[in-house]
Specification:
Blueprint lengths: L2 H14 L4 H15 L5 H11 L6 H14 L2 H13 L5 H17 L2 H18 L4 H12 L1 H4 L4 H10 L3 H7 L1 H22 L9 H12 L3 H11 L5 H20 L7 H31 L2 H12 L3 H16 L4 H18 L4 H13 L9 H10 L3 H24 L2 H10 L8
Protein backbone atom coordinates (compact mmCIF):
# COMPACT_ATOMS: atom_id res chain seq x y z
CA UNK A 1 0.00 0.00 0.00
CA UNK A 2 1.13 3.56 -0.67
CA UNK A 3 2.83 4.78 2.55
CA UNK A 4 0.89 8.06 2.56
CA UNK A 5 -2.41 6.23 2.22
CA UNK A 6 -1.31 3.75 4.89
CA UNK A 7 -0.49 6.65 7.22
CA UNK A 8 -3.87 8.32 6.77
CA UNK A 9 -5.89 5.12 6.92
CA UNK A 10 -4.18 3.88 10.09
CA UNK A 11 -4.66 7.31 11.71
CA UNK A 12 -8.38 7.53 10.95
CA UNK A 13 -8.92 3.91 11.99
CA UNK A 14 -7.43 4.74 15.39
CA UNK A 15 -9.60 7.85 15.60
CA UNK A 16 -12.67 5.77 14.77
CA UNK A 17 -11.68 3.40 17.60
CA UNK A 18 -11.68 6.46 19.92
CA UNK A 19 -7.96 6.36 20.60
CA UNK A 20 -6.66 9.67 21.95
CA UNK A 21 -5.69 11.87 19.01
CA UNK A 22 -2.12 12.35 20.27
CA UNK A 23 -1.62 8.60 20.55
CA UNK A 24 -3.29 8.10 17.16
CA UNK A 25 -0.82 10.48 15.54
CA UNK A 26 2.20 8.85 17.15
CA UNK A 27 1.14 5.21 16.72
CA UNK A 28 0.19 5.60 13.06
CA UNK A 29 3.46 7.45 12.40
CA UNK A 30 5.60 4.80 14.12
CA UNK A 31 3.75 2.06 12.24
CA UNK A 32 4.51 3.65 8.86
CA UNK A 33 8.09 4.47 9.82
CA UNK A 34 8.70 0.83 10.68
CA UNK A 35 6.96 -0.38 7.51
CA UNK A 36 9.11 1.96 5.39
CA UNK A 37 12.29 1.16 7.34
CA UNK A 38 12.88 4.81 8.26
CA UNK A 39 15.00 5.70 11.33
CA UNK A 40 12.97 5.61 14.54
CA UNK A 41 15.08 8.46 15.89
CA UNK A 42 13.01 10.68 13.60
CA UNK A 43 10.08 10.22 15.98
CA UNK A 44 11.86 11.86 18.90
CA UNK A 45 13.53 14.52 16.78
CA UNK A 46 10.32 15.68 15.08
CA UNK A 47 8.22 15.54 18.25
CA UNK A 48 10.75 17.62 20.15
CA UNK A 49 11.27 20.15 17.38
CA UNK A 50 7.51 20.75 17.18
CA UNK A 51 7.17 21.73 20.83
CA UNK A 52 10.44 23.66 20.97
CA UNK A 53 8.69 26.92 20.12
CA UNK A 54 8.68 30.17 22.09
CA UNK A 55 5.36 31.46 20.65
CA UNK A 56 3.75 28.18 21.75
CA UNK A 57 4.38 29.23 25.36
CA UNK A 58 1.57 31.78 24.98
CA UNK A 59 -1.03 28.98 24.83
CA UNK A 60 -0.87 27.80 28.49
CA UNK A 61 -1.06 31.40 29.69
CA UNK A 62 -4.23 32.03 27.69
CA UNK A 63 -5.65 28.75 29.01
CA UNK A 64 -4.82 29.90 32.53
CA UNK A 65 -6.50 33.22 31.72
CA UNK A 66 -9.68 31.32 30.86
CA UNK A 67 -9.55 29.60 34.25
CA UNK A 68 -9.22 32.96 36.02
CA UNK A 69 -12.14 34.46 34.11
CA UNK A 70 -14.38 31.52 34.99
CA UNK A 71 -13.36 31.38 38.65
CA UNK A 72 -14.06 35.04 39.45
CA UNK A 73 -16.78 37.55 38.68
CA UNK A 74 -15.28 38.87 35.43
CA UNK A 75 -17.64 36.80 33.28
CA UNK A 76 -20.66 37.98 35.30
CA UNK A 77 -19.55 41.60 34.91
CA UNK A 78 -19.25 41.12 31.15
CA UNK A 79 -22.75 39.63 31.07
CA UNK A 80 -24.10 42.74 32.81
CA UNK A 81 -22.27 44.97 30.31
CA UNK A 82 -23.77 43.00 27.43
CA UNK A 83 -27.26 43.12 28.95
CA UNK A 84 -27.04 46.89 29.43
CA UNK A 85 -25.80 47.37 25.87
CA UNK A 86 -27.91 45.07 23.69
CA UNK A 87 -30.31 43.27 26.03
CA UNK A 88 -33.19 45.67 25.33
CA UNK A 89 -33.26 44.72 21.61
CA UNK A 90 -35.89 42.18 20.54
CA UNK A 91 -34.48 38.74 21.35
CA UNK A 92 -32.43 40.37 24.10
CA UNK A 93 -30.90 37.30 25.75
CA UNK A 94 -29.81 36.00 22.35
CA UNK A 95 -28.04 39.29 21.62
CA UNK A 96 -26.44 39.22 25.05
CA UNK A 97 -25.25 35.69 24.29
CA UNK A 98 -23.51 36.74 21.07
CA UNK A 99 -22.21 40.06 22.43
CA UNK A 100 -20.62 38.57 25.53
CA UNK A 101 -19.07 35.80 23.42
CA UNK A 102 -17.43 38.43 21.20
CA UNK A 103 -16.05 40.19 24.27
CA UNK A 104 -15.08 36.93 25.99
CA UNK A 105 -13.32 35.90 22.78
CA UNK A 106 -11.09 38.94 23.08
CA UNK A 107 -10.09 37.83 26.57
CA UNK A 108 -9.48 34.08 26.63
CA UNK A 109 -9.23 32.86 23.03
CA UNK A 110 -10.90 29.58 23.99
CA UNK A 111 -14.21 28.52 22.43
CA UNK A 112 -14.79 25.63 24.85
CA UNK A 113 -14.22 27.89 27.88
CA UNK A 114 -16.72 30.38 26.46
CA UNK A 115 -19.33 27.66 25.88
CA UNK A 116 -19.00 26.29 29.40
CA UNK A 117 -18.94 29.61 31.26
CA UNK A 118 -21.44 31.67 29.25
CA UNK A 119 -23.66 28.71 28.40
CA UNK A 120 -24.09 27.63 32.01
CA UNK A 121 -25.62 31.05 32.75
CA UNK A 122 -27.45 31.99 29.56
CA UNK A 123 -28.87 28.70 28.27
CA UNK A 124 -31.04 28.11 31.39
CA UNK A 125 -32.03 31.82 31.37
CA UNK A 126 -33.06 31.65 27.70
CA UNK A 127 -35.09 28.49 28.32
CA UNK A 128 -36.92 30.14 31.24
CA UNK A 129 -37.66 33.19 29.06
CA UNK A 130 -39.41 31.00 26.47
CA UNK A 131 -36.66 30.53 23.88
CA UNK A 132 -36.57 27.25 22.02
CA UNK A 133 -33.97 25.17 23.92
CA UNK A 134 -32.38 23.97 20.66
CA UNK A 135 -32.01 27.57 19.47
CA UNK A 136 -30.44 28.59 22.81
CA UNK A 137 -27.97 25.70 22.58
CA UNK A 138 -27.13 26.36 18.91
CA UNK A 139 -26.60 30.10 19.41
CA UNK A 140 -24.42 29.59 22.48
CA UNK A 141 -22.24 26.99 20.78
CA UNK A 142 -21.93 28.94 17.54
CA UNK A 143 -21.15 32.30 19.17
CA UNK A 144 -18.46 30.68 21.32
CA UNK A 145 -16.53 29.77 18.15
CA UNK A 146 -15.76 33.48 17.82
CA UNK A 147 -13.07 32.76 20.42
CA UNK A 148 -11.21 30.89 17.68
CA UNK A 149 -11.33 33.87 15.31
CA UNK A 150 -11.23 37.06 17.40
CA UNK A 151 -7.81 37.60 19.03
CA UNK A 152 -6.23 36.35 21.17
CA UNK A 153 -6.91 33.09 19.35
CA UNK A 154 -4.97 29.97 20.36
CA UNK A 155 -5.43 28.56 16.85
CA UNK A 156 -3.95 31.68 15.27
CA UNK A 157 -0.97 31.40 17.62
CA UNK A 158 -0.46 27.79 16.53
CA UNK A 159 -0.84 28.70 12.85
CA UNK A 160 1.57 31.63 13.11
CA UNK A 161 4.16 29.70 15.11
CA UNK A 162 4.28 26.69 12.80
CA UNK A 163 3.42 28.44 9.54
CA UNK A 164 6.03 31.18 9.97
CA UNK A 165 3.37 33.90 9.73
CA UNK A 166 3.21 37.06 11.85
CA UNK A 167 0.99 36.29 14.84
CA UNK A 168 0.29 39.97 15.34
CA UNK A 169 -0.94 40.33 11.75
CA UNK A 170 -3.07 37.17 12.13
CA UNK A 171 -4.59 38.57 15.33
CA UNK A 172 -5.55 41.85 13.65
CA UNK A 173 -6.78 39.98 10.57
CA UNK A 174 -9.25 38.04 12.70
CA UNK A 175 -10.94 41.15 14.13
CA UNK A 176 -13.17 42.22 11.22
CA UNK A 177 -14.28 38.69 10.17
CA UNK A 178 -15.01 37.80 13.79
CA UNK A 179 -17.06 40.94 14.39
CA UNK A 180 -18.85 40.46 11.04
CA UNK A 181 -19.87 36.93 11.95
CA UNK A 182 -21.04 38.19 15.35
CA UNK A 183 -23.18 40.92 13.78
CA UNK A 184 -24.68 38.41 11.33
CA UNK A 185 -25.51 36.10 14.26
CA UNK A 186 -27.25 38.95 16.05
CA UNK A 187 -29.20 39.77 12.88
CA UNK A 188 -30.29 36.15 12.62
CA UNK A 189 -31.29 36.22 16.30
CA UNK A 190 -33.41 39.34 15.73
CA UNK A 191 -35.18 37.72 12.77
CA UNK A 192 -35.88 34.57 14.83
CA UNK A 193 -37.14 36.73 17.70
CA UNK A 194 -39.63 38.44 15.39
CA UNK A 195 -40.75 35.10 13.93
CA UNK A 196 -41.19 33.32 17.25
CA UNK A 197 -41.99 36.17 19.62
CA UNK A 198 -38.85 36.03 21.75
CA UNK A 199 -38.88 38.89 24.27
CA UNK A 200 -36.52 41.80 24.86
CA UNK A 201 -35.09 42.61 28.27
CA UNK A 202 -36.17 45.88 29.86
CA UNK A 203 -33.69 48.73 29.49
CA UNK A 204 -32.19 49.37 32.96
CA UNK A 205 -31.80 53.11 32.39
CA UNK A 206 -28.75 55.10 31.37
CA UNK A 207 -27.44 55.45 34.92
CA UNK A 208 -27.62 51.73 35.65
CA UNK A 209 -26.18 50.89 32.21
CA UNK A 210 -23.27 53.27 32.77
CA UNK A 211 -22.58 51.68 36.17
CA UNK A 212 -22.55 48.18 34.65
CA UNK A 213 -20.18 49.29 31.90
CA UNK A 214 -17.87 50.96 34.44
CA UNK A 215 -17.79 47.83 36.61
CA UNK A 216 -16.86 45.66 33.62
CA UNK A 217 -14.50 48.09 31.92
CA UNK A 218 -11.37 47.04 33.81
CA UNK A 219 -11.42 43.57 32.24
CA UNK A 220 -11.50 45.14 28.78
CA UNK A 221 -7.91 46.25 29.27
CA UNK A 222 -6.92 42.64 28.57
CA UNK A 223 -7.36 42.89 24.76
CA UNK A 224 -5.57 46.25 24.94
CA UNK A 225 -2.55 44.54 26.49
CA UNK A 226 -2.65 41.76 23.92
CA UNK A 227 -3.41 43.57 20.67
CA UNK A 228 -1.89 46.92 21.56
CA UNK A 229 1.30 45.38 22.87
CA UNK A 230 1.84 43.06 19.91
CA UNK A 231 0.88 45.57 17.20
CA UNK A 232 2.96 48.28 18.82
CA UNK A 233 5.95 45.96 18.87
CA UNK A 234 6.33 46.28 22.64
CA UNK A 235 5.80 42.60 23.48
CA UNK A 236 5.74 39.17 21.88
CA UNK A 237 2.51 37.10 21.96
CA UNK A 238 3.89 35.13 24.92
CA UNK A 239 4.74 38.29 26.84
CA UNK A 240 1.31 39.73 25.98
CA UNK A 241 -0.31 36.60 27.42
CA UNK A 242 1.69 37.00 30.63
CA UNK A 243 0.58 40.65 30.91
CA UNK A 244 -3.06 39.63 30.38
CA UNK A 245 -2.82 36.93 33.07
CA UNK A 246 -1.14 39.35 35.48
CA UNK A 247 -3.91 41.91 35.03
CA UNK A 248 -6.64 39.27 35.43
CA UNK A 249 -4.98 37.99 38.62
CA UNK A 250 -4.74 41.55 39.94
CA UNK A 251 -8.44 42.17 39.27
CA UNK A 252 -9.56 38.82 40.70
CA UNK A 253 -7.45 38.65 43.86
CA UNK A 254 -6.77 42.32 44.68
CA UNK A 255 -9.55 44.51 43.26
CA UNK A 256 -12.65 42.27 43.22
CA UNK A 257 -11.47 39.76 45.86
CA UNK A 258 -14.12 37.26 44.79
CA UNK A 259 -11.84 34.21 44.72
CA UNK A 260 -9.89 33.04 47.80
CA UNK A 261 -6.14 33.10 47.26
CA UNK A 262 -5.85 29.46 48.35
CA UNK A 263 -7.53 28.45 45.06
CA UNK A 264 -4.68 29.82 42.96
CA UNK A 265 -2.47 26.68 43.11
CA UNK A 266 -5.35 24.45 41.98
CA UNK A 267 -6.16 26.86 39.13
CA UNK A 268 -2.53 26.74 37.98
CA UNK A 269 -2.54 22.94 38.18
CA UNK A 270 -5.80 22.71 36.20
CA UNK A 271 -4.40 25.03 33.51
CA UNK A 272 -1.25 22.89 33.29
CA UNK A 273 -3.38 19.77 32.80
CA UNK A 274 -5.48 21.59 30.22
CA UNK A 275 -2.32 22.40 28.27
CA UNK A 276 -0.78 18.93 28.55
CA UNK A 277 -3.30 17.34 26.17
CA UNK A 278 -2.86 19.81 23.26
CA UNK A 279 0.91 19.84 23.87
CA UNK A 280 1.00 16.07 23.50
CA UNK A 281 -1.05 16.45 20.32
CA UNK A 282 1.37 19.10 19.04
CA UNK A 283 4.28 16.72 19.65
CA UNK A 284 2.50 13.87 17.87
CA UNK A 285 1.56 16.13 14.98
CA UNK A 286 5.24 16.97 14.56
CA UNK A 287 6.15 13.50 13.36
CA UNK A 288 2.85 13.01 11.51
CA UNK A 289 3.18 16.32 9.67
CA UNK A 290 6.80 15.51 8.80
CA UNK A 291 5.68 12.24 7.21
CA UNK A 292 2.90 14.05 5.33
CA UNK A 293 5.56 16.31 3.82
CA UNK A 294 8.10 13.49 3.34
CA UNK A 295 5.65 11.45 1.27
CA UNK A 296 4.72 14.46 -0.87
CA UNK A 297 1.10 14.86 0.20
CA UNK A 298 1.09 18.58 -0.54
CA UNK A 299 2.17 18.05 -4.14
CA UNK A 300 -0.38 15.28 -4.64
CA UNK A 301 -3.24 17.39 -3.33
CA UNK A 302 -2.17 20.47 -5.29
CA UNK A 303 -1.87 18.46 -8.51
CA UNK A 304 -5.25 16.84 -7.93
CA UNK A 305 -7.01 20.14 -7.29
CA UNK A 306 -5.30 21.98 -10.14
CA UNK A 307 -6.40 19.18 -12.46
CA UNK A 308 -9.97 20.17 -11.54
CA UNK A 309 -9.49 23.94 -11.66
CA UNK A 310 -6.65 26.44 -12.01
CA UNK A 311 -8.75 29.39 -10.91
CA UNK A 312 -7.48 30.88 -7.61
CA UNK A 313 -11.06 31.23 -6.37
CA UNK A 314 -11.82 27.65 -7.41
CA UNK A 315 -8.73 26.35 -5.61
CA UNK A 316 -9.65 28.21 -2.43
CA UNK A 317 -13.27 27.03 -2.57
CA UNK A 318 -12.05 23.43 -2.79
CA UNK A 319 -9.72 24.14 0.14
CA UNK A 320 -12.71 25.38 2.14
CA UNK A 321 -14.57 22.14 1.37
CA UNK A 322 -11.47 20.15 2.41
CA UNK A 323 -11.19 22.06 5.70
CA UNK A 324 -14.90 21.64 6.43
CA UNK A 325 -14.55 17.88 6.02
CA UNK A 326 -11.48 17.44 8.20
CA UNK A 327 -12.93 19.83 10.78
CA UNK A 328 -15.74 17.38 11.47
CA UNK A 329 -13.31 14.76 12.80
CA UNK A 330 -10.33 16.78 14.06
CA UNK A 331 -10.05 19.70 16.45
CA UNK A 332 -8.68 22.87 14.83
CA UNK A 333 -5.25 22.61 16.49
CA UNK A 334 -4.69 19.09 15.16
CA UNK A 335 -6.06 19.98 11.73
CA UNK A 336 -3.67 22.94 11.41
CA UNK A 337 -0.64 21.00 12.60
CA UNK A 338 -1.28 17.96 10.41
CA UNK A 339 -2.39 19.61 7.19
CA UNK A 340 -0.46 22.90 7.33
CA UNK A 341 1.87 21.87 4.44
CA UNK A 342 -1.15 21.13 2.23
CA UNK A 343 -2.98 24.31 3.27
CA UNK A 344 0.03 26.51 2.53
CA UNK A 345 0.81 24.74 -0.75
CA UNK A 346 -2.73 25.41 -1.97
CA UNK A 347 -2.50 28.99 -0.73
CA UNK A 348 0.72 29.49 -2.68
CA UNK A 349 -0.87 27.98 -5.78
CA UNK A 350 -3.80 30.40 -5.48
CA UNK A 351 -1.42 33.28 -4.64
CA UNK A 352 -3.28 34.09 -1.42
CA UNK A 353 -1.52 36.25 1.17
CA UNK A 354 -0.26 34.10 4.11
CA UNK A 355 -2.13 36.21 6.68
CA UNK A 356 -5.34 35.95 4.66
CA UNK A 357 -4.84 32.19 4.32
CA UNK A 358 -4.26 31.72 8.06
CA UNK A 359 -7.36 33.64 9.10
CA UNK A 360 -9.49 31.97 6.41
CA UNK A 361 -8.30 28.53 7.56
CA UNK A 362 -9.16 29.39 11.16
CA UNK A 363 -12.64 30.66 10.25
CA UNK A 364 -13.49 27.49 8.33
CA UNK A 365 -12.04 25.13 10.94
CA UNK A 366 -14.07 26.90 13.64
CA UNK A 367 -17.15 25.33 12.02
CA UNK A 368 -15.87 21.92 13.12
CA UNK A 369 -16.41 22.98 16.74
CA UNK A 370 -20.18 22.91 16.16
CA UNK A 371 -20.51 20.05 13.66
CA UNK A 372 -20.45 16.37 14.74
CA UNK A 373 -18.80 14.03 15.26
CA UNK A 374 -16.17 16.33 16.83
CA UNK A 375 -18.31 19.42 17.56
CA UNK A 376 -17.04 19.89 21.12
CA UNK A 377 -18.78 23.25 21.65
CA UNK A 378 -22.12 21.91 20.44
CA UNK A 379 -21.74 18.84 22.68
CA UNK A 380 -21.03 21.02 25.74
CA UNK A 381 -23.94 23.35 25.01
CA UNK A 382 -26.34 20.47 24.30
CA UNK A 383 -25.42 18.87 27.61
CA UNK A 384 -26.03 22.13 29.47
CA UNK A 385 -29.35 22.70 27.71
CA UNK A 386 -30.47 19.05 27.91
CA UNK A 387 -31.08 18.96 24.15
CA UNK A 388 -30.44 16.00 21.85
CA UNK A 389 -27.56 16.36 19.41
CA UNK A 390 -29.94 15.81 16.48
CA UNK A 391 -32.08 18.83 17.43
CA UNK A 392 -29.01 20.91 18.17
CA UNK A 393 -27.47 20.13 14.77
CA UNK A 394 -30.63 21.16 12.91
CA UNK A 395 -30.81 24.40 14.90
CA UNK A 396 -27.15 25.28 14.33
CA UNK A 397 -27.12 24.78 10.55
CA UNK A 398 -28.26 28.34 9.65
CA UNK A 399 -25.50 29.78 11.82
CA UNK A 400 -22.95 27.44 10.23
CA UNK A 401 -23.96 28.89 6.87
CA UNK A 402 -23.32 32.39 8.24
CA UNK A 403 -19.71 31.50 9.09
CA UNK A 404 -19.13 29.85 5.72
CA UNK A 405 -20.66 32.89 3.98
CA UNK A 406 -18.17 35.24 5.66
CA UNK A 407 -15.29 32.91 4.74
CA UNK A 408 -16.38 32.88 1.09
CA UNK A 409 -16.94 36.65 1.06
CA UNK A 410 -13.36 37.15 2.20
CA UNK A 411 -12.19 35.40 -0.98
CA UNK A 412 -13.87 38.04 -3.15
CA UNK A 413 -13.10 40.91 -0.75
CA UNK A 414 -9.66 40.13 0.78
CA UNK A 415 -9.62 43.42 2.69
CA UNK A 416 -12.19 41.92 5.06
CA UNK A 417 -9.20 40.03 6.46
CA UNK A 418 -6.04 41.89 5.43
CA UNK A 419 -7.29 45.48 5.23
CA UNK A 420 -6.76 46.18 8.94
CA UNK A 421 -3.38 44.38 9.22
CA UNK A 422 -2.08 46.38 6.24
CA UNK A 423 -2.88 49.61 8.09
CA UNK A 424 -1.57 48.47 11.47
CA UNK A 425 1.46 46.44 10.39
CA UNK A 426 2.44 47.55 6.84
CA UNK A 427 5.97 46.15 7.18
CA UNK A 428 4.54 42.60 7.30
CA UNK A 429 3.10 43.17 3.82
CA UNK A 430 6.20 44.87 2.42
CA UNK A 431 4.55 48.31 2.55
CA UNK A 432 6.68 51.28 3.57
Amino acid sequence: MNPLLLLLVSFFVLIALRVNIGFSLILSSIFVIMMEDLPLSSVINQMYSNIDSFPLMAVPFFMFLGRILNAGSITDRLLRVADSTVGHIRGGLGHVNVFVSMVFASLSGSAAADTASVGSVLIPSMKRAGYDPAFAVALTAASSTLGVIIPPSIILIIYGAFGNVSIGALFIGGVIPGLTIGVFMMTYTYIEALRKGYPANSFPGFKSAAQSIMKGSASLFIPVFVLGGIVGGFVTPTEAAILAVSWALFLTFVIYRDVPFRKLPSMIAEAAIDFSVPLFTVAGAGIFGWLISFFGAAEIVVNTITSITTSPIGIMLLLIVFLLLIGTVLNPISAVLIFLPIIQALGDQAQVNPVHLGVLTTIVLSVGLITPPYGICLLIAAQIGDVTIGRAVIAVLPIVLITILVAVLSLWIPDIVIGLPKLAMPAVFGIR
